[in-house]
Design brief:
Length: 371
């Protein structure tokens, strides 16, 4: 027998098998043939695998949307770019993400307007913070891509593809088995019946073997869940680090911009000698509004200077709500009246405030001293 004859016979056998399966499948759908049912345990495993695949895909895709633009592609593109430049013995150019680009624009604008002006100084400080956030954002994307998205994608493109392949083989083996059983029922001649019985035994053995292979693969889904749980913990930790960094960066920026109200007036008067001082405030806009008390700025400054140089106390009206940043500070409500005084060595932008048995540091920019 030459190779051509062998190939022809093999193609004919494959065609016969395919036709037999197609006929069996069609008759099952029409209710004209019996179907071998999988055992309940295997059915449950198949259902669990399908459910895992479905939700893994949804979580993976939505995580990619959350980390816009597509972090996997960016990560891979960056690695490919680094590889190319490494081969060319050149350093890959640095890429700016959106927060970093915004930060650079702010810094450039601040330098253009003048670092000595209130607005220019504030722009520079905001720009530096935006660039820090951009760096944190880059780290979140890369960490999430490696520790969370990649394992999920590996399951979809690796393990589940193998499961799908073996499940399809199991379906084919089941069709072969049921087709053999159908032929056995139709066999009338003893010789044909003996051949059909032999075929049923062979196909039953192949079906059982494939069912066991599929079952072992499906039981690995529990291990997949355990692995994805560890990956999920890594993702949560990366997010926690990112948001903590962003909060701290903005908190520091807020403190740096806290004295913006006093410099806002000098900036409008074209004064470039007043630097942006450091003070903790909950809102830059609220601080800006606090620069317009009912008395003149010079009178307020004079009154606070006198208070700081003396050991006495004064009553002060709160201009805006203030949420204490820590236990050393005192939360304030707009329009309430509190007692304020200074203590030696205290920051120039703060006073001690008392309300009944409560006391703590309060920002000067939120107060209007009363006579």
């Amino acid at each position: 027998m030459n190779i051509m004859d062998f190939n022809v016979k093999k193609l004919a056998a494959d065609a016969g098998t395919f036709l037999s399966r197609a006929v069996q499948f069609t008759e099952e759908k029409l209710g004209q043939a019996e179907k071998t049912e999988l055992d309940a345990h295997l059915e449950n495993l198949l259902s669990k695998a399908e459910c895992t695949k479905l939700w893994t895909e949804k979580i993976m895709k939505q995580t990619e949307v959350l980390l816009q633009p597509n972090p996997i592609n960016i990560f891979l593109d960056a690695r490919i770019e680094e590889f190319v430049y490494e081969k060319l013995d050149r350093k890959a150019p640095s890429r700016m993400n959106n927060p970093e680009l915004l930060g650079q624009y702010m810094i450039d604008a601040g330098n253009e307007f003048g670092p000595g002006t209130a607005y220019g100084n504030a722009l520079i400080k905001c720009g530096e913070t935006q660039k820090r956030i951009g760096t944190a954002d880059r780290e979140l994307i890369q960490t999430s891509a490696i520790n969370f998205l990649t394992p999920l994608r590996n399951f979809i493109e690796g393990d589940y593809k193998t499961i799908t392949k073996e499940r399809k083989l199991l379906q084919n083996k089941r069709l072969d088995l049921d087709a053999a059983k159908t032929r056995l029922k139709k066999a009338k001649v003893a010789e044909a019946r003996a051949a059909s019985e032999q075929e049923v035994r062979i196909t039953q053995s192949e079906f059982d073997r494939q069912a066991e292979i599929t079952r072992l693969l499906l039981e690995g889904i529990s291990s997949t869940h355990a692995h994805h749980l560890r990956c999920l913990n890594d993702f949560v930790e990366a997010q926690m680090t990112y948001y903590a960094q962003c909060y701290q960066y903005m908190l520091d920026l807020q403190k740096q911009l806290g004295s913006f109200p006093s410099t806002f007036l000098s900036n409008n008067n074209q004064s470039s000698s007043t630097p942006v001082q450091s003070v903790s405030t909950p809102s830059v806009l609220a601080s800006a509004s606090a620069s317009l008390p009912s008395v003149s700025n010079s009178i307020v400054t004079s009154g606070i200077s006198e208070l700081k140089s003396s050991s006495g106390s004064r009553k002060a009206r709160v201009l805006y709500d203030y949420d204490a940043a820590n236990s050393s500070e005192l939360s304030l409500l707009a329009d309430e009246v509190i007692t304020v005084y200074s203590i030696p060595g205290m920051d120039s932008d703060w006073l001690m405030g008392e309300r009944g048995n409560q006391k703590g540091k309060v920002p000067i920019t939120y107060l209007e001293l009363l006579n």
